[in-house]
Design a protein that fits this description.
The complex is a heterodimer of chains A (about 110) and B (about 110). Chain A is mainly beta and about 110 residues long. Chain A has strands spanning about 1-5, 10-15, 20-25, 30-35, 45-50, 55, 60-65, 70-75, 85-90, 100, 105-110. In chain A, strands 2, 4, 5, 9, 10 and 11 form a 6-stranded mixed β-sheet that branches. In chain A, strands 1-3-8-7-6 form a 5-stranded antiparallel β-sheet, with no helix packed on it. Chain A is globular. Chain B has strands at about 5, 10-15, 20-25, 30-40, 40-50, 55, 65-70, 75-80, 90-95, 105, 110-114. Chain B is globular, with a radius of gyration of 13 Å. Chain B starts with a strand and ends with a strand. In chain B, about 35% of the residues are buried. The chains are: A mainly beta (about 110), B mainly beta (about 110).
């Protein structure tokens, strides 16, 4: 089975940098995803890591360490519109299922 | 591309009634997933299909829940009879067989059972 942990809530200031951590335990790993979900909307894809290291995409970066079962999402130059929930999800190697953590609700203040 | 289309967007029903949620995946996507989201439990995978065939329904909470995919462009999730604890947002997602980027979610159905 899989177990995914991430903080429930975080706050940050506009223009700052925030790091959202995710730890996971899985029997079969085939990639880690980060999704963004605004209130009342569907999750939307942000990033994907399958190899160790940092993937950068504009203001957002995602890091993976498979040996530690650890990932983080880094958001730079925070904007008010970044206030949302950020979901960490692990794909199972055998079944291709995408299993989600409970999400981190980020509030950005002026 | 219209994306994954779900209907209805909102459903309010009385306990004991049958509820049917509908999903149209993105054309060409081989996989279809049904998720349920609540504040307490987050996004839970209920069932998924590959090429219209149910592969894993271990997440379906009870026999009251059933899902079908009669063809590549349509799937239903049915709850009969519905109970107040079934109140949640139900999402459908689809993906292509190849590549990691294809998990696209629909807008969801917010179900309230009173």
């Amino acid at each position: 089975g899989q177990n995914i942990d991430q903080p429930t809530e975080m706050t940050a200031t506009e223009g700052a940098i925030v790091q959202i951590n995710c730890t996971y335990q899985t029997s079969g790993f085939n990639g880690l995803f980060w999704y963004q979900q605004h209130a009342g909307e569907a999750p939307t894809f942000l990033s994907y890591n399958v190899l160790d290291g940092l993937e950068e995409k504009g203001r957002f970066s995602s890091f993976l360490s498979r040996s530690k079962g650890y990932s983080y999402l880094l958001l730079k130059e925070l904007q008010m519109k970044d206030s949302a929930s950020y979901l960490c999800a692990v794909r199972d190697w055998d079944t291709d299922k995408l299993i989600f953590g409970t999400g981190t609700r980020l509030q950005v203040f002026p | 591309d219209a994306g994954v289309i779900q209907s209805p967007r909102h459903e309010v029903t009385e306990m004991g009634q049958e509820v049917t949620l509908r999903c149209k995946p993105i054309s060409g996507h081989d996989y279809l997933f049904w998720y349920r989201q609540t504040m307490m439990r987050g996004l839970e995978l209920l069932i998924y299909f590959n090429n219209n065939v149910p592969i894993d329904d271990s997440g379906m909470p009870e026999d009251r829940f059933s899902a079908k995919m009669p063809n590549a462009s349509f799937s239903t999730l049915k709850i009969q009879p519905s109970e107040p604890r079934d109140s949640a947002v139900y999402f459908c997602a689809s993906k292509q067989a190849s590549g990691p980027y294809g998990y696209t979610f629909g807008s969801g159905t917010r179900l309230t059972v009173v």
